[in-house]
């Protein structure tokens, strides 16, 4: 007896390609830049900023979710004179943090993706000041600790360049704003 072969007919909807795995849609970017706070935060209000931004967007999509966390820390050590004329050593540290979440829109054009993004953010800042008299015998340091945080918004724009199958480089300009 001859062997019988059965072929099943599969509807086209079942043969559609599967969604790409999460790793193909997740982009993690280390960033560096500058942070500037309002004049109220004094001469340390400007400083370098680092952080991580995460995009959840396939290369063929035009919209996706984005989140990130940015940090900055500036320190100044110096000497001064107190109101009584004694020399003092001053140590001031200003730290900021900024978690954010939002949406990014991108238009793939060959190996370049122009993008725009925006969303909400929570910006926090802490300034710690310590003054120590330089003469011995006075153990009293003067310290102050100012903290503030506020909800705000952010937006960014830039270009992402495809350098390889999973490697990109980008140039971006980002602006965050909140009243601290």
Give an overview in words.
The protein has 180 residues and is an all-beta fold. It has one helix and seven strands. A hairpin with a 5-residue loop joins strand 4 and strand 5. The longest helix has 4 residues. It starts with 21 loop residues before the first helix and ends with a strand. The relative contact order is 0.16.
Specify Rg, calculated over alpha carbons. Answer: 26 Å
What is the terminal-to-terminal distance? 86 Å
Number of strands: 7
State the strand order across the main sheet: 1-2-3-4-5-6-7
Binned strand content? over 45%
Uncertain segments: 3-18
H/E series, N to C? HEEEEEEE
The overall average pLDDT, rounded, is 80
What's the tally of helices?
1
Which percent range fits the helix content?
A: under 10%
Biggest sheet record: 7 strands, antiparallel
**Structural class designation:** mainly beta
Question: Which overall shape is indicated by the principal axes computed on the Cα atoms?
Answer: elongated
């Amino acid at each position: 007896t001859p062997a019988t072969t059965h072929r099943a007919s599969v509807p086209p909807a079942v043969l559609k390609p599967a969604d790409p795995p999460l790793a193909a849609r997740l982009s993690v970017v280390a960033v560096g830049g500058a942070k500037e706070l309002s004049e109220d935060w004094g001469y340390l209000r400007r400083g370098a900023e680092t952080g991580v931004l995460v995009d959840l967007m396939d290369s063929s999509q035009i919209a996706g979710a984005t989140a990130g966390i940015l940090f900055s820390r500036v320190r100044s050590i110096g000497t001064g004179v107190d109101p009584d004329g004694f020399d003092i050593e001053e140590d001031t540290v200003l730290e900021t943090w900024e978690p954010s979440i939002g949406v990014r829109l991108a238009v793939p054009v060959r190996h370049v993706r122009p993008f725009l993004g925006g969303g909400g953010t929570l910006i926090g800042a802490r300034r710690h000041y310590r003054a120590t008299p330089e003469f011995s015998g006075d153990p009293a340091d003067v310290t102050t600790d100012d903290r503030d945080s506020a909800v705000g918004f952010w937006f960014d724009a830039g270009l992402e360049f495809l350098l390889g199958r999973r490697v990109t480089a980008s140039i971006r300009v980002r602006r965050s704003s909140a009243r601290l």
